Structures are given as C-alpha cells and as structure tokens.
Amino acid sequence: MSSTRRSAGGALKGGRWWVVALLIGAATCCLVPAGATAAADDEPAVTLAAPSMQRGAWVAKIVQPTRAVPAPGSSKRGVPVATTVDDGGYFSQELLVLERRTLPDGEGWLRVRLPVRPNDAEGWIPEDAARLRHTDWWVRVRTERRTIEAYEGGRLRLRARAVVGARATPTPRGLFAVLLVAKQRDPHGFLGPWAVHLTSHSDVLENFGGGPGRVAIHGRDGESLQDPLGSARSHGCVRVSNGSVTLLARWLRPGTPVQITG
User: Which residues contact 92 (CB under 8 A, 6 or more apart)?
Assistant: First the structure.
C-alpha cells in the first residue's frame, strides 16, 4: 500500500488534546446510564476501576455531541467529540474510559482516550453526554515477540503469531483502544476479511493507502501473504491469520483496550 512519511518536525507531543479537531466514532450492547455505577442511596458511590487485563474496562458511548477539555469542569472550548465517526460508513463513537471524577457540585466527568494524534491524546467529557458499558476483553500485542493475545476476564482466549511494523515503520506502543471493526468488501484483498481499527496512528507515516495513518489489526491475503507470520515487515499495522482476525472481530467492540508493548 502507498504511504506518506511524516516529517520529523510534524510529530506532536503526547497529551495535547487541543492540537487536532475530532471526527470520531460499532454497535454496542448492554448499555446502561452513565450514573448507574453509583451504589444505593445509603451507600457510597462506586468509582470506576481503571482499565486492566484482570478487571476489563469501561467504555463510554457518546450519545450527544460534546467537547473534550483538559480538566473536569474546564471552561476552555476544547475540541468537539461527535456521536459517530464517518469512516466510509457511520459507526457509533465509543471511547475507552481511563478515569471518572465527580466535582463538588455532583457533576460527573470521564477521562477518555481520544482516537487522534498524538497517540496518548486524552480529554475529559461530561458524564451525561455518554452511556457506559463494561467490557471484559483485553488485547495485548508484543512487538518483540511478534505475538498477539486476547484475554476475557483475565483468561487467555487467543495467542497467535503476528506480522508487526518494520524497523523503519514500527508499530506504535502504548495503551490504545478499538475504534471500529470493519468487514472488508474483498475478503481476499490485502487486509483479509476484517480490519480492527485502533485509536493509534503511525509515528512515522501520515497515511496508509490514502487513509489517516491509523493502525489496525487485520488479516492477510494477496500480497500480504509474502510477509510470514512472526516477521516485522508491516507499515505499523498488526497482521494476523484470517482465522485469528475473524475471532477478534467476533469478540471485540469499540473501546476495548489494546495494549502494545515491546
């Protein structure tokens, strides 16, 4: 696939939620009101647990347009967060929740991972703009071992070999999330039958084949079969067997944590 390399000066430092505008955003299930994490009236409120392999994570489905700001209750304009993402079709916007905080006035805020550059971009959104659900799934990619693992409730469900980024175009590391799960029109094309798009982007390339340089976990077919599983030859995406990516597409939903390490 064709690609455009990023200039060295174009790399953005992490945590600057304000540097990009958002057009962010697959069907979800088991949605509950965001405030449903609170206990009974005579019990203290329950704090949402941070994402972890053992406990899973909370996911916020955006139900009304809002803005991500640098701190809970901030009066800064922030950046827009839409209810859907337009990626050749409309997908609901569901974001990984990193933290929840309640202000003295009782207003709840959620710190979420944003699917934009830089790769550790995050921001706070008002809790009443979202509906929460919990996922037991966790995905871990190990670039040095060139493997991918999927856990459900802390139990290993899948371990498979993968093709990871080449030395010049490495797979970015960090804690990301599934952005959307896209069935491919041609299951025998380069990407195989499914592409699980992530919130991360290449640190080196501006785009892949005309896209925004977003990293994905996808299958293999056509020319991509020339790179054997267990090699480091991709532009940054994680390629797995078609059987493995089909399982991942069945199990994973937007907002599922994806941890990429060395």
Answer: 25, 26, 27, 28, 61, 62, 83, 84, 254
Please write the tens of the pLDDT for every residue from 192-226.
999 999 999 999 998 776 678 899 999 999 999 99
CA atoms within 13 A on the CB side of 11: 11
Please tell me what DSSP assigns to residue 46.
P
CA distance linking residue 237 with residue 205, whole number of Å: 11
Count of structural domains, the chain? 2
Could you tell me if 201 and 250 lie in one domain? yes
Range of the domain at 56: 12-135
Judgement on whether residues 97 and 146 belong to the same structural domain of the protein: no
| Contact between residue 94 and residue 254 where contact means Cβ atoms under 8 Å apart | yes
* Residues 182 and 154 reside in one and the same domain: yes
* Predicted TM-score (pTM) of this structure: 0.83
Instruction: Tell me the pLDDT tens digit for each residue of 54-101.
Output: 999 999 999 999 999 999 999 998 889 999 986 555 799 999 999 999
Query: Tokens in use for 184?
Result: 């491919």
d(CA 92, CA 89): 10
